TrEMBL record:
Keywords, ordered alphabetically: Membrane, Transmembrane, Transmembrane helix
Pfam families assigned: DUF218 (PF02698)
Protein name, as recorded: DUF218 domain-containing protein
TM spans (from-to): 12-37, 43-64
Source species of the chain: Thiosulfativibrio zosterae
One term under GO cellular component: plasma membrane
Ranges of residues in domain DUF218: 82-248
GO BP term, example: peptidoglycan metabolic process
């Protein structure tokens, strides 16, 4: 069932990704227009309006900000914890494998956050969880190897690391990692992207893992900075993950993989 869910989620995203939807709208609209169907013109107009909106203004901020504001890092860190959990996703696995050196992606701030906490808690184990989320790049153990190399280069002692590289999505992150935790009923600081924190905390709670959110990798702009700038690629950095995360929250809740639809801080 987990394999079916993993493959189906990847196939579904091909058609649900905002940029793919826009491109498919142009392609289908053009095809219908060539076939003489009047709906082709309507679809092209709608696709153009959507593309123009995304290009001219960071509309994705309005989708991603509720996710990013749901959890905040503790104003005061706890005196003691049992470990630091960092979710995979900050690595750029295809480029790392292609060029033979560790490359970070947009979520690379997860490593900075883990380093900050590792310095604050010099005796706490650092637990990385994340295999490849790509259907084509399974069984490479690449993300685990990259995580070990990156974390040690940041100055975290290898003996502190617990590396899990078999999980392929957030649900598997926690369920595969749970048996590896140093203390089953312990307290763990959780490092992942701010927009991804609600779903991550919900899954952790469902798995019985006590986590404290430590969000990083914010993608939205504050109201006073947001403006029309016609930067299509930059606007996708908030729109794509936000749209995917809201879908993920809904699907994970409907399939019983998270404790509630939109988890919040206790």
């Amino acid at each position: 069932m987990d394999q079916f869910f993993f493959v189906l989620s990847k196939l579904a995203w091909v058609f649900l990704s905002p940029i793919n939807l826009i491109l498919l709208g142009f392609m289908l609209g053009t095809l219908l227009l060539l076939l003489g169907w009047r709906y082709g013109k309507t679809l092209l107009v709608l696709s153009s309006l959507l593309a123009g909106s995304v290009m001219s203004y960071p509309v994705g901020d309005y989708l991603i900000q509720p996710l990013e504001k749901r959890f905040s890092a503790p104003a005061t860190l706890p005196l003691d914890i049992d470990g630091i959990i960092i979710l995979g996703g900050g690595e750029d696995l295809p480029r790392s494998l292609s060029w033979g050196r560790p490359e970070l992606g947009l979520g690379g701030d997860r490593y900075i956050g883990a380093k900050e906490l590792a310095d604050h808690y010099p005796n706490a184990p650092v637990i990385f969880t994340g295999g490849s989320g790509s259907v084509q790049l399974q069984n490479t153990a690449g993300e685990g190897n990259l995580a070990r190399e990156l974390l040690t280069k940041l100055g975290i002692a290898p003996e502190r690391l617990i590396i899990e590289s078999k999980s392929r999505n957030t649900y598997e992150n926690f369920n595969v990692t749970q048996p590896l935790l140093p203390k089953a009923d312990g307290t763990y600081l959780l490092v992942t992207s701010a927009f991804h924190m609600p779903r991550s905390v919900g899954i952790a709670r469902k798995a019985g893992i006590n986590v404290i959110a430590y969000p990083v990798d914010y993608r939205s702009n504050s109201d006073d900075i947001r403006h029309f700038d016609f930067d299509f690629f930059d606007h996708l950095k908030s729109l794509e993950p936000a749209w995917k995360e809201w879908i993920g929250l809904s699907v994970y809740y409907w399939t019983g993989k998270t404790s509630e639809w939109f988890p919040k801080a206790d």
